[in-house]
Amino acid sequence: QFQLVESGGGLVQPGGPLRLSCVVSGFTLDRNAIGWVRQVPGKEREGVACIDSEVVASAESTIYGDSVKGRFTISRDNAKNTVYLQMNNLKPEDTAVYYCGTEWNIQCSPRFEYSLWGLGTQVTVSS
Hints:
The chain is mainly beta.
């Protein structure tokens, strides 16, 4: 069974950090790009970050949404089948449900469109 499970969400003050995790099962990260998107009720889904699979390049290749560049960092640990999203300098507008997903491609797409998703984890940035 193919599955992605997000964790690490919570309540954080503006300016603070938070790290999300996406554990995958039933498949491996070495041949699948994994991305993060976020959703606020009533708004369109927004692409956050994506990391290419290991077979694309030895150096980790990533893409980021414009609103998070310089603040968020995506990384992967193939041995743990886990993708991380390190979020720094969080802002109230980062509040959303964060989902990880895959389109079964080895390389990220700037469209952030995926066919398999996790259930999401809530991130709330508030004082």
